[in-house]
Amino acid sequence: MEQNEGRIFPVEYALEMILIFDRTGAVSYMNAVARKKLGYEGDYCDRKIGDIFPNAFKDVLDDNAAQNLFETEPQNLVAYRKNLTCFPVEAKLVRSEIEPTIYICMANDILEKEFLSREIEQVRQEAQQAMKVKSEFVANVTHELRTPVNGVLGNVLELLDSVTDAKTVKSLRLIERCCGDMNKIINNILDFSKLEAGKFVLEPNRFHFRNMLDYVKSHHTNKITEKGLGFFMTVSPQIPEYVIGDELRIVQILNNLLSNALKFTSVGKITLEVVRTARVNDKIELFFIIKDTGIGIDKADKDKLFQSFSQVDASISRKYGGTGLGLNICKQLVELMGGKIEVESEKNKGSTFSFSIWTGISKEDENTLTQTEDTRPSLTLSSSADEEEGEIDSVRIYGTAENLENLNRNLSKLILCVEMENWEKAEMFMETIRQLTEGAPREVSRAILRLKMAIQKENYEKASAGFEELNKLITC
Question: Which of 144, 191, 180 is nearest to 331 (CA)?
Fold first, then answer.
């Protein structure tokens, strides 16, 4: 320990540099760290604080100078060693409470900190450059992929106009569908790349809101009804005819959520509801609810839904397909529109996706809305949630009247697809029938398995025989 006139300084081995000096700038004490870093080995008695911090201290230090130098916050200074080399420090000056003419300077060497900061900045710049290169690469690759895919698709469409052979037409339709799926994947990858790079820009415009919803509905109605599902859409009368927003991206979000609902639902119905939840000046908040009665998910798996390249489990991807990008893109698009997206779901009870976005309204539409919104009726639903849940539960239980009615309806559609040798749709109805017969007697389950294998092998004779067998077991 360093001693001075019988006094022991407990800061001798502190981790920071500590220097004590008077109003004339004469240094009376340096602790061990200060002596080592500054290159003094006890011969600092004739040194001035201005020798160590020449750019900050004068020979004589008055109260005003001390106050102006440090005030209350630490400052970045340059400390000079005995050999006149220098290094950066973060220093703070305090006045001694015992003797007002004595000052204490506490300083930390920040050379390593500055070095690490430069290293971090370099790594950040390299990461930004790598992200830019990756984004450009993905954009170039997706554009290059589009060319051959669209070339194949164009030739297929030309052939479809001239080919009459049923087997060839079926193959061409399959190629057409594959090209469409490939274009969807390419678009998802390109959107994801732009969003990750922060280069995605919304393009708001004034559009007719209900016409947009009609377009979305027409795009999905046939596919949903072909699967034997109900499809219902409700729009609040409090929403104006025209809104200002990125119509293309709103359609993209709705198409993605409705496609997922269709993909994972074999029994029941899909509903789309839109309400207005808030208004601030010329902005309104729209709230969308997409509800299905599909397979649902466990609560523990909900966080995986909106992660990029993520599926709830591997079997989902194998059975239903998908890249795991759709919901992540929806989440980012919704957030760009000032809203958020959430999901409520229960295994085998269906899922409810909801999201909010903020859209604008023009001055003309705002005046019209103000005049009419107080007289419009409130939104009412045709049935309660409890009634709907009870109805769907009844459909799922094998042997109930609702279950058998749905089974017969889907069996009729199945045999029609078999007769037309539309095996793709036959497999879709087969999956619905399988879900409707869960918990059925053993002989029914075996008949289901035999029919499913015959359809997968596209064997008309065995599929017809399997249908007759299953139909008899169900109607007995």
Answer: 191
348: left (phi over 0), alpha (psi -120 to 50) or beta: left
Sign of CA dihedral 242, 354, 428, 328: positive
- In one-letter notation, the amino acid at residue 440 is A
Contact 33, 17 (CB under 8 A): yes
Side-chain-facing half-sphere of 356: CA atoms under 13 Å: 13
Q: Per-residue pLDDT tens for 268-326?
A: 889 999 988 888 888 999 999 999 988 888 777 776 777 765 555 544 544 445 556 77
Closest CA to 9 of 104, 108, 107: 104
Residue 389, burial from CB neighbour count under 10 angstroms (0-12, 13-18, 19+): middle
Q: Are 265 and 293 spatial neighbours (Cβ–Cβ below 8 Å)?
A: yes
Taking residue 337's Cβ as centre, other Cβ atoms within 10 Å add up to 21
CA distance 383 to 163: 49
Whole-prediction pTM value? 0.56
Spatial contact of 260 and 295, defined as CB atoms under 8 Å apart: no
Assigned token pair, 278 = 């808030």
Q: Residue 414 in contact with residue 468, Cβ under 8 Å?
A: no
Per-residue model confidence as pLDDT tens digits over 130-183 = 777 776 777 677 777 778 888 888 888 888 888 888 888 888 888 888 888 788
Which single residue is written with the structure tokens 């759709």?
A: 326
- On whether the CB atoms of residues 290 and 458 are closer than 8 A, the answer is no
